[in-house]
Fold Hydrogenase expression/formation protein HypE.
Amino acid sequence: MSSKDIITLLHGAGGSYMHNLIKQIFMTLDDNFGDIGLQMLDDGAVINNVVFTTDSFIVRPIFFKGGDIGRLSVSGTVNDIAMMGGDPVALSLGVVIEEGFPIHDLEKIVNSIKNTALEAGVHIVTGDTKVMEKGSLDKIIINTSGIGFRSKQLDHDIETLRKTREPKEWLVPLNLRPGDKIIVSGTIGDHAIAILSSREGIGFEANVSSDVAPLNKLINGILEIGGVADAKDPTRGGLADLLNDWSEKSKLGIYIREEDIPVKDEVRAASEFMGMDILELGNEGKAVIAVSPEYVKDVLNELWSIPQGKDASVIGEVRKDIEGVILETSIGGKRYVGRPLGDPVPRIC
C-alpha cells in the first residue's frame, strides 16, 4: 500500500492535504442543509439562525505554556461560532481517556474548562465519557460541539455593509469586496511556538505563551462598530491557509505586507531556528478580519482598547487586479503565498 492510500499527519494539519481529503471523501456526503451548510466549508453551519459547530482536540502536550487542552477545547468551539457572527451559548463535552490517566490531571483540565466557559459566558450542558485500554490512546481526546444564536451586533454590522455591497446574512468570505482592509488582531505564531517549546526533545525553549482564548466578546465589539465583511481565526495552517481560503471562495486577490504583520521577536527567532514559515504557524487566540475601508480606524480603536487586541494591525487589503495571496516582503520584493501542505507543527490543537 503506497503513501497515497493511507492517512498521514498532514491530512489533519489544516493545509492542502486536509482540504483535499475533505473534498474527496467527506464532501461526497453532499449535504447543503440549512442557511450555511456543509458545502460552504466554513467554521460551522447555520440552521434556522442557530450556529452549530464541532471540534476534536488532540494537542500534545496536554499542558503547555499559557494553557491546556481544556482551555483549548472551549476556546476553539466558542471562536468557531463567533467568527460566523454567532453568539455562543452552550457546549457539549465528550472526553475519551486512556486507562491509567491521573485523576488529578483530569481535575485540572475540567477546572480549566469551567473557568474558560465562565470567561466566554457559555454553559457546558451535556457530555459523554469513554475510557480506552492503556496504550491504545495518547492520554486524552476532547470533543466539544457548540451552538449559538445570531448575534444582535451582527444585524447592525450587515446593515453597514449594505452601503457598499449586497452582503450575505452571516460572516462568510463571499462578503469580501475589493478595497476591504485585512486586520489581524495581534501577534501571530504564539500558540505553535508555545506548544513546540513545551515538548520534550525539541531542543529549544522560548519564552512564549500560547494565545489560546475565547474571542466572542472581541468579535461582538467590532460588529457593534460595523463594516466587518468576514472574520476567521487562523488556526491550523495559519495565516497562509486562511487567506488562501478567503481568496479561493471570494475569487479575489489578497495583498499583504510582511512588515505590517505583528510577530514577537521570540516567535520570529524560534521559527527561523526551526526553519518554519511564520505565516503557516497555528494560532488559537487571534482573529483575521476583513473590514470596509471607512470603518477601519474605528475597528482598530476598538481592538486597541482591549488586551486581546492591543497589537492589532492592518496587514493588507483585498484586490481584484491580482490572483491568490501576494506578500510584499520587508525588503520590497513580492512572493506568492500558497496554501501550505499542512501546519508545520503537528497536534497543536
Remarks:
- The first strand starts at residue 45 and ends at 47.
